[in-house]
Amino acid sequence: MYTQPTVLRSVLDPKYLEYCLSKHYDIGQWIECLYWLRGLNDTYRVRTSNGFYILRVYRLAINENDVAYELSLLTQLKIVLNSVDTKVSEPIAKKDNSLYTVLNAPEGKRIAVIFRYLNGTENILHDEASCFTFGRSAAELHTAMDQVILNQPRYELDTNFLVTQPLERIVNYIGEKNEAVPFLHEFANALKEQILIASRQGLDWGLCHGDMHGNNNAFKEGSYFTHYDFEWSANGWRAYDLAQVRARKRQLEDQKEPLWNALISGYRSVRNFSAQDEMAIELFVIARRFWVMSLDVAFIESDSGALDYSDDWLEGFIDEFRNFEIV
User: Fold this and answer.
1) Angle formed by the axes of helices 311-323 and 181-199, to 10°?
2) Which CATH architecture does the domain made up of 14-117 adopt?
3) What is the distance between the alpha carbons of residues 281 and 93, in angstroms, rounded to a whole number?
4) Whole-angstrom Cα distance, residue 142 to residue 86?
5) In what helix (H) or strand (E) does residue 17 lie, and over which residues does it extend?
6) Separation of alpha carbons 290 and 115, rounded Å
């Protein structure tokens, strides 16, 4: 019974974070801790006598195993990528050489990590040169990921993650009796079947970034990209990683094809991307959109509220899925 106040998601006071964390890091005297961005997790910008840093406080659902996996990946990638232009975000070690802190929050335990501050800027990939560079960077990242060894248990970016689990979340939210449910089941089954057929053609499978949409997960500095936000990283189809860039909605319609061709050319300048992989891109664009719909659902209760996720939201996705014409 809910007889006491219950918190689903808090915003931790910067002063509390300074109290909890400053003594554990050798990064200079803390001058300011500023709440910077509310996303799936909370981001703060820390300014010390040594400069700027980024502090991430993960949401309650992210546990120590999740964070340990991401940080192990980043630590190894920093070493492997040493000889190429592409870089990744760098976690800052504490005085005891550990990389994260478990904090007490009103809703439960939340994990905090401080990262080195990135000086680049977000590149919106609106010109062919930037797309070529991003494609090359994505290929360098995938090549480096092939050399990483991770022993922690982890889900995979397979049809269960991309289709089955999202379907369950969506149906649970709209209700089994909603008139859209039969179509959603038919659509999900057709999507899974087509992905399985495509996968039998020998698609490239390996460690993926998991959220490589090219918006707020990579900064460009000079001629190279630094990738961050590896929260969704896991083994999956590399075509799914690139499909997230393909699905971008921030490019003019008449520019999408030349920009995409530039990106793929950049990727292939470093790493093979087969005709079968490229043919599967559109299929994974559909899977990504289905997964994004379920991501909306996942954060209604604790973050966004239900107001904007009612009939219009549902009808918009149903119309979009029908236009894909896979059922």
Assistant:
1) 40
2) 2-Layer Sandwich (3.30)
3) 38
4) 11
5) helix 14-21
6) 31
